Amino acid sequence: MAGLVGSAAQSDQLARVASNLGALNAQNALTLVNRQLSLAQTRLATGRKLNTAEDDPANLTIATKLRARAEGFMQALDNLGDSKNFLATAEGALQKINDILVKVRTKSQQAISDIMGSTERSDIEKEIEGYLAEISDINNETQWNGRKLLQISGGGADVIFQTGANADNTISFKFGRTTGHSSSNLHLDGVSNRGHVNSSSSAQAYMSSVDSAIASISVSLREVGSMMARLTFKEEQVTVAHANTEAAFSRIMNADIAREQVKATTFLILQQIATASLSQANANPQAVLALFR
After folding, report:
1. What ranges in the chain are assigned the alpha helix state H?
2. Domain coordinates of the chain in residue numbers?
3. Which of 279, 268, 257, 177 is closest to 222 using CA atoms?
4. Which helix H or strand E contains 173, and what residues bound it?
5. Are 278 and 55 in contact (CB under 8 A)?
6. Which of 4, 26, 182, 214 is placed for a possible disulfide with 277 were both Cys, Cβ 3.0 to 4.6 Å?
7. pLDDT, mean over the chain
8. What gap in Å lies between CA 100 and CA 131, rounded to an integer?
9. What are 31-63's pLDDT values in tens digits?
10. In whole angstroms, how far apart are CA 121 and each of 38, 101, 107, 110, 190?
């Protein structure tokens, strides 16, 4: 080992008892073994290969960056889950509006038949107005953290979804419509439409308007579905990236327990040998006493 005196030089010192070089070499060897044994035992106890910056400064720096990136991926997965829930809420509201529009269409179709009198058509009109009011309520009341989801339209700001480990890993979303999804936005009420089931021809025209509204809601549902599919792809990619980053971090920071156990056993044996050697080296100067007999 480094720092030990050569055997020839040591043999020349056997008669010089004031300095026991053999014992000093054995002590140095024991100190080195104890240090290595302590390191192996610490790694076994903590499960970490790098326990202090002293162990490997460069790799510790790399591992610290990998840890931050791995945590970033974990937060990104949470963000992606929240974003999908955000969109799922909007999707549920759009599905309900679509269900209501199907009922409005059915009532409009019912009013086309001339077997309906003015009183019956008036009752149908009132039922339709109730449905339209509910559509507007859904448009206004579907919210997430105070934001009206169905009014994220082409005329407003995008919604930003954070999707990766870095600050600039984002995608944006908004509906292609320039307005929201109320009955007015869907052109189903207002002066031009109200009362338009009071005759066969007006009911036919109104039914056509409802078909256009259903088509419009279908487009919004498609936009939500496409974004959710994209977020799912992002989720899969981030999951793989996180696993690979964790693997790289583990390779640098975490101890190979089997290897460290072998090292600890080896150094434990060497410790016992070095201790015995030190004991023997301490006894060697007694041989000089034979010169006085």
Report:
1. 7-12, 21-46, 57-112, 118-141, 200-253, 257-283
2. 7-47+256-292, 57-252
3. 177
4. strand 170-173
5. no
6. 26
7. 86
8. 6
9. 888 888 877 888 888 888 888 887 788 988 999
10. 92, 18, 9, 9, 18
Mean pLDDT of 105-116: 94
- Largest Cα separation within the chain, whole Å, is 143
> What do you get for the CA distance between the two ends of the chain, in Å?
37
**Phi, psi of 128, deg, nearest 5:** -65, -40
Question: Which of 261, 95, 83, 238 shows the shortest CA–CA distance to 160?
Answer: 83
Contacts of 138 (CB under 8 A, 6+ apart): 93, 96, 97, 100, 150, 181
Answer yes or no: are the C-beta atoms of 56 and 225 closer than 8 Å: no
Q: Is 163 helix (H, G, I), strand (E, B) or coil?
A: coil
Task: Give the three-class secondary structure for 32.
Answer: helix
Q: Mind listing the pLDDT tens digit for each residue in 61-82?
A: 999 999 999 999 999 999 999 9
Instruction: Report the alpha-carbon distance of residue 173 to residue 157 in Å, rounded.
Output: 9
Q: What's the one-letter identity of residue 50?
A: L
Q: For residues 141 and 147, what is the distance between their CA atoms, to the nearest angstrom? A: 9
Q: Which of 207-216, 234-243, 272-281 has the lowest mean pLDDT?
A: 272-281
Note the pLDDT of residue 93: 97
Per CATH, the architecture of 57-252 is what? Up-down Bundle (1.20)
Report the alpha-carbon distance of residue 241 to residue 107 in Å, rounded. 53
